[in-house]
Specification:
This protein is mainly beta and about 280 residues long. The protein has three helices and 18 strands. The radius of gyration is 30 Å and the shape is elongated.
């Protein structure tokens, strides 16, 4: 009996040792995508040109020159409206993974571009790709100067987007039209003696509005094809007997992030939620 006990002890110890030596399986961590730095791998310095979509003109002729690793010159011209170019000079930097450039002094307007082989793709105000039917038109193509004439030509390495058709013309443009409010938060507005109006001015990216009492104004930006936002909103401070519509309208301006035009109707939205509807003054 004593012999049997001594025999079982080494056997138990041996089994415990084998069991305890089994390796523990650690959960595998997900592999991170291999992001290639455009700054380190592409010849990105130079001049980029394109005609970007415009709310109330034939297009925004855009010329962006990356002069060196920190400085840029941005020249824009509104085709069919003004021959005067708008020129902005400043500095630019890169995002964390060096795939986008960010123009430093372009507050209130598009400021970020994805850097690709032979082109720049304009991004929205959140630094995300612009989507929709006109997304491919938000591209600037890299150019080169002809040695003899100095004319800007498409660089050989650029990939030109083909088969892009212009947006269908609309009867009433977002900017330059007097829009008259008729529905606010899905409630019909009783027609006032003096119309409640909203007008956007493309020349200086400002807007004016009248909702029954005070004069309202500020700036607007269009970060994408159907994106719209109102900023720096101000108004006069007159005492108004009934300013419910005006107060609601002013509050909703900060929530607007998109718009659409259907024939003579302007719709302001927050995502898919309709905030206000207008008819074009005729």
């Amino acid at each position: 009996m004593r012999y049997l006990v001594f025999l079982l002890v080494p056997l138990t110890f041996s089994l415990y040792s084998c069991t305890s030596k089994e390796p523990k399986t650690e959960p595998s961590s997900p592999t991170k995508p291999n992001v290639i730095s455009a700054k380190q791998t592409l010849d990105y310095l130079g001049v980029y040109k394109g005609v970007l979509p415009c709310a109330d003109c034939e297009g925004i002729e855009t010329l962006l020159e990356l002069q060196d690793t920190t400085r840029f010159v941005l020249t824009t011209r509104y085709l069919g409206k003004s021959e005067t170019p708008f020129v902005v000079r400043g500095t630019y930097g890169w995002n964390a993974n060096e795939t986008q450039i960010q123009l430093d002094n372009q507050k209130g307007g598009p400021y970020a571009y994805a850097v690709m082989e032979g082109s720049l793709q304009q991004l929205d105000l959140q630094g995300k790709p612009i989507t929709g039917d006109l997304a491919s038109r938000y591209r600037l193509i890299k150019m080169k100067k002809d040695a003899q004439t100095g004319e800007l030509l498409v660089a050989k390495e650029a990939t030109v987007v083909k088969g892009t058709t212009p947006a269908a013309p609309i009867a009433f443009a977002l900017a330059g039209t007097e829009w008259r409010l008729h529905t606010l938060l899905k409630k019909k507005i009783r027609a006032p003696k003096k119309p409640f109006t909203l007008t956007l001015l493309s020349k200086d990216a400002r807007f004016t509005a009248y909702m029954g009492c005070n004069q309202i104004g500020g700036q607007y930006i269009m970060p994408s094809v159907d994106g719209l936002a109102f900023t720096a909103v101000i108004s006069t401070k007159m005492a108004c007997p009934d300013d419910q519509v005006e107060a609601t309208f002013v509050k909703l301006l900060s929530q607007v992030d998109a718009y659409s035009i259907q024939k003579d109707q302007l719709i302001l939205r927050q995502g898919k939620t309709v905030l206000a509807q207008f008819s074009a003054a005729k």
